[in-house]
Amino acid sequence: MAIRKGSTLILETAPGVISYGAVGSKKESEGPLAEGFDQLFPDSTLGEETWEKAECRLQKEAVRIALEKGKIKSEEIHCLFAGDLLNQCTSSIYGLREVGAPFVGLFGACSTMAESLTMAALFLEGGFGEKTAAVTSSHFCTAERQFRFPLEYGGQRTPTSQWTVTGSGAVILGKGSSGPYVRGVTIWRMRDMGITDANNMGAAMAPAAADTLERFFTDTGMQPEQFDLIATGDLGKVGSDLLLEVLEKDGWSLAGRHNDCGLMIYDREKQQVEAGGSGCGCSASVLCAHILPALQRGELKEVLFVATGALMSTTAVQQGESIPGIAHLVWLTAGAG
Amino acid sequence: MAIRKGSTLILETAPGVISYGAVGSKKESEGPLAEGFDQLFPDSTLGEETWEKAECRLQKEAVRIALEKGKIKSEEIHCLFAGDLLNQCTSSIYGLREVGAPFVGLFGACSTMAESLTMAALFLEGGFGEKTAAVTSSHFCTAERQFRFPLEYGGQRTPTSQWTVTGSGAVILGKGSSGPYVRGVTIWRMRDMGITDANNMGAAMAPAAADTLERFFTDTGMQPEQFDLIATGDLGKVGSDLLLEVLEKDGWSLAGRHNDCGLMIYDREKQQVEAGGSGCGCSASVLCAHILPALQRGELKEVLFVATGALMSTTAVQQGESIPGIAHLVWLTAGAG
Fold it and tell me: Measuring CA to CA, how many Å separate B204 from each of A34, A317, B325?
């Protein structure tokens, strides 16, 4: 039975990770985390006819790899939680249609990996099933044409803009895991600080990340120093600076503990990604290509994974609305604690 | 602790409904369920500047009414599950931004009311909180322009087309309820039978509804006769006929038990809605304006609420894809059983 502390749930059964898969494309293969990916496609079409079909394929492959690595049949998945950035969660719907597992579609923009992992962990903690899966993806070309400009337009990128990761991460949770484990979750609220610039997602999300982290520390009485890594994703450079500034002002220092998935996946100096990486696939693939493997190897012991979402709709922004942010937190631990 | 039977979960604590709100607009006020609505706006703008803002308002009002009727403060909601048809769930995000409750965004197209109610019930059954809420909405004008044609185009409607309900339903679940109760849920898989016509949603969803109902009856060993009402939503006339045909072929008869939210909300003879009502707001408002009140009054005792979703994306359909359907089932009962 989970213990509720404020808005944070401490999971007594500590649902464990059985397996996971990370897939990416060319740009991800040139970044510092390339080695951790299970599959890296040489170009972002993945041999498909459209960018959207390519993104569907990313989710399909991530799930296939996670199932294979865990020697799990798709029939064993008691609930599959997935979502993505595309209108009507196209990548999850069409990418996972053939998996045949009970399906719960989610929308949390770039917070989806934390959202899906949270729901997958709670489903197990509640005793509702034996194995669950959490999946999400993003694709640079589908995101650009949906949220900003068609690539053919050749628009200039602003210094605050982030590069949407072409990648996917899938995690399978269940019994019989030897870790890492999900020890706690904080599902938290939307925050809107009035940002209206679709090229400055980091600023829209930073207040939500700060809000969620403060919630977790206050709820649990724990301190940032108790964690080896506090990984937000994907605030990029602009959002990360803002996050640290906001927290500092409120008396919290993440000094030496914080990193952002959007800063980890690319080399900003060499890869021309402006403020860093973004997209649901950013935190998802950094989780599966870097954080979970490091927890498994014991290089990391206690991690806070805080995926952040800019809940942006082009229709709403065109109608003068600002962009609400949201962040959900998953506390991961190497041992069963 | 929930009992798992196949893919169906029987909820031992039977999370109860504390309160609910149903809001609609002009067309709904002219339909046979008008009396059950808490609020009916005289026109579909709701006094807002855009259709999208009007739809946001629908969710906001439904939640406000449910909170007021239950004498509940929004801070008491431990998790709010919501989603809708609009790109990036615009109506839920902007409509519920100010509620300030921990927020889990969902995407299940028109199955969202069953999906959100399921997640809200499981959250309580798992012991994760004391009160949860489930919300969704739709709006005729936002749906038409997003999925089909701008209204100004004046396109002719086909006989298989359905009229998207301009309405919303919100349900608050929690302890201290005197019913109705959620006794069971079946979260189930996507089904795609190759339908590509965006004006024939009923046919895209009927196989999923049949699949989910057969799953539930097989899992539990229960029979259709044990239920006073088996409410699908929103298959309309075309989808309902298909559902009964598919089930009949497989040896299940819903004779005299079945009705569809899309057939209940409008008078098809008088209201020119072709095959019936549709949209997330259809099953949501029929649930909150008719089914829950009837359970509370004891006129209904055992109900299966099976909201169905056509997981359609215009991008995918333009790229030649068919439309997958999905249906989730919620077993509602008047007494605590």
Answer: 41, 32, 6
| pTM, full prediction | 0.98
Can you tell me the distance from the alpha carbon of A232 to that of A264, in angstroms, rounded to the nearest whole number? 10
**Cα separation of A308 and A205, whole Å?**
6
What gap in Å lies between CA B289 and CA B158, rounded to an integer?
A: 28
Q: Given its phi and psi angles, is residue A302 left (phi above 0), alpha (psi -120 to 50 degrees) or beta?
A: beta
- Radius of gyration in angstroms for the set of CA atoms belonging to chain A, rounded to a whole number: 18
The C-alpha of B94 sits at a distance from chain A's nearest C-alpha, in angstroms, of 8
Chain A partners within 8 Å of B94 (Cβ): 313, 316, 321, 324
Residue pLDDT tens, chain B, 337 long: 899 999 999 999 989 999 999 999 999 999 999 999 999 999 999 999 999 999 999 999 999 999 999 999 999 999 999 999 999 999 999 999 999 999 999 999 999 999 999 999 999 999 999 999 999 999 999 999 898 888 888 888 888 999 999 999 999 999 889 999 999 999 999 999 999 888 888 889 999 999 999 999 999 999 999 999 999 989 999 999 999 999 999 999 998 999 999 999 999 999 999 999 999 999 999 999 999 999 999 999 999 999 999 999 989 989 999 999 999 999 999 985 5
> What is the bridge-based pairing of β-strands B8-10 and B3-5?
antiparallel
Best of B52, B99, B107, B308 to substitute, by most chain A Cβ atoms within 10 angstroms, is B107
Which tokens in the block code for residue A122?
């709670």
Q: State the residue for tokens 């402006």.
A: A274
Tell me which residue in A49, A115, A128 faces B122 most closely, judged by beta carbons.
A128
End-to-end CA distance of chain A: 16
Interatomic CA distance for residues A60 and A54, integer angstroms: 10
Q: What is the ipTM of this complex?
A: 0.97
Can you tell me the distance from the alpha carbon of A172 to that of A129, in angstroms, rounded to the nearest whole number? 12
Q: H or E segment at B182?
A: strand B181-186
